[in-house]
Amino acid sequence: MFTFAVRAYFMANQPTKQRFYELSFSELLFLSDGDNKKYQSRGGKTKEKILIVDDEDLILEMYKIKLEKEGYEIITARNGEEGLIAARAQKPDLVLTDIMMPKYDGFYLLKKIKGDAELKNIPVITLSNLNDSYKRQKACELGTLYFLVKSEFLPKDVADIIKEVLTIKAKYSHVFA
User: What is d(CA 15, CA 34) in angstroms, rounded to the nearest whole number?
Assistant: First the structure.
């Protein structure tokens, strides 16, 4: 349910995006969050894990490098099937996924993540080449927080969005424990 609350927050606070949900803060307090797994780095600080799922090696490597520089632990998968396996095994703090991929596409991956009791509270951001309102709507209905078109966002912009999502998730973790 945490993902629903965060999506509601972001959709309601993006004037250029369609508003899907509105929740009051009191409603937000009654929602529950799943595990917020982190690991200890060598310096003792916790790092958040991000799973990047994309079949394009260049995109995978570009976002891996950028997000590692931002201090995140990065897990990569080259298709939706690998992504689902990695999500179940690693329990990332956030998933960044493409839509058009071999084996399982991003929609199927999103549906499986949001349908799994252990994974459903993991925020998912969709990063795709597709700029289609139907596909955007479908991804949002399946539970994505953001549907980002690759050509419209720099890696820095995506990193900023990820930071914002994880900051809100961390800020309210005591409420959702």
Answer: 29
- Whole-number pLDDT of residue 177: 44
Predicted confidence band of residue 21 (pLDDT cuts 50, 70, 90):
very low
pTM for the structure as a whole: 0.74
Domains (ranges, CATH) in the chain? 2-171 (3.40.50.2300)
pLDDT at 70 over 70: yes
Spatial contact of 71 and 42, defined as CB atoms under 8 Å apart: no
The secondary structure of 19-71 as a DSSP string is P-----HHHHHT--------EE-TTS-EE-EEEEE-S-HHHHHHHHHHHHHTT
- The label of the residue with tokens 């709507």 reads 137
Within its chain, how far is the Cα of 111 from the centroid? 13
